[in-house]
Amino acid sequence: MQKIKAISYGVGVIGSMVAKTVIEKKKDWLQIVGALDIDPSKIGKDLGKVVGLDTNHNVSIQNDPEKVVKETNADIVIHTTSSYLERVAPELKRLAGCGVDIISSCEELSYPYATNRKIAEEVDNVAKENGVTILGTGINPGFLMDVLPTILTTPCIEITNVKVGRQMNAANRRIPFQKKIGAGLSPDEFRSAIRNKTISGHVGLFQSISMLADSLGWELDKIEILEPEPVVLEEKVGSSWITVERGKVAGSKQFAYGIINGKRKIEYEFRAYIGAGEEFDLVDIEGTPRVHFKSTPCINGDSGTIAMLINNIPKVIEARPGLLTMRDLTLPSAAHIQIS
Ligand SMILES: NC(=O)c1ccc[n+]([C@@H]2O[C@H](COP(=O)([O-])OP(=O)(O)OC[C@H]3O[C@@H](n4cnc5c(N)ncnc54)[C@H](OP(=O)(O)O)[C@@H]3O)[C@@H](O)[C@H]2O)c1
Hints:
Elements: E1 4-9, H1 13-25, E2 30-36, H2 47-50, E3 61-62, H3 65-72, E4 76-79, H4 85-97, E5 101-104, H5 112-115, H6 117-129, E6 133-136, H7 147-152, E7 158-169, H8 175-180, H9 187-195, H10 205-216, E8 222-225, E9 229-232, E10 237-238, E11 243-244, E12 249-260, E13 263-273, E14 280-288, E15 291-295, H11 301-311, H12 313-318, E16 322-324
Helix pairs in contact: 1-11, 4-6
């Protein structure tokens, strides 16, 4: 079998975990042939060492996308630089101009036509002109609060309401995630960091609700995204990165709604904080028949994201050109799993 050649673009925590997983566990069908980052401390270094392998991988991290795509003749770029569509759009257009497919963990790229149609159409046009496919995916958005509830509606003949929830102990997540949910701040610092956009909380609820509503053919009057709130616990909690004193912020909770005729027809709750007792993913569909799905513990967001980025690569390569979403791909599944 011809191996798929991939470039790692943005060798941060997620990019490193993806590259390490590919090199250690997926080498029978996928190989990392190039690496890109803007961090000067990584440029020129060997990818293997940067991602924590004992040996060199003989791929040096560079910062010139055109050169790396041309030299490696890669099939796909695994893009893990930022959460925001406006920020990644120039990176995506530049890569698409090189004629290479892209799979990205950018949250706002997961359902981009819902939030910024103009930018999404520009990226889509460049992708089509160059015959490449671009997909935004990940665990959430990308699977747990959009694709999974959408699939779970399939056996329903009538639906009156959909509730989707996720609660996780953020101590089990990577440090950038613990930072973006405000762990360790005071409640006041948390609120001003959210308003100044120095932390974001979870990004993607608008995209997830839009995908579900579009899949059901529901025309929402409004999507209401409430501001992330701090979760403050009565006891001291900690992760391997931080100790959170009593009264400080352990993480955040967020609520969002899809509204029709003044009624909350879609209800989302997202809680991520250090010390969360119960971890779960929940989808509750009030309809005929009722569907109630609960996974306890919740699916780990970091390893889940790595899997989503790797498993969807063959589907992206087979897909038609354009800026696609998970709704455009064939039925999602793991790929090339070894029988053990
Ligand atoms: N959809 C999902 O389910 C999901 C799940 C996990 C993560 N994510 C998202 O994926 C992204 C990556 O996460 P992370 O934790 O790995 O973040 P991270 O550790 O900050 O990694 C991002 C890396 O990309 C580099 N970078 C930034 N802009 C770049 C550019 N224009 N060209 C090349 N490299 C660039 C950064 O360099 P500097 O450090 O110098 O900026 C950093 O090395 C985040 O936006 C995160 O929210 C999504």
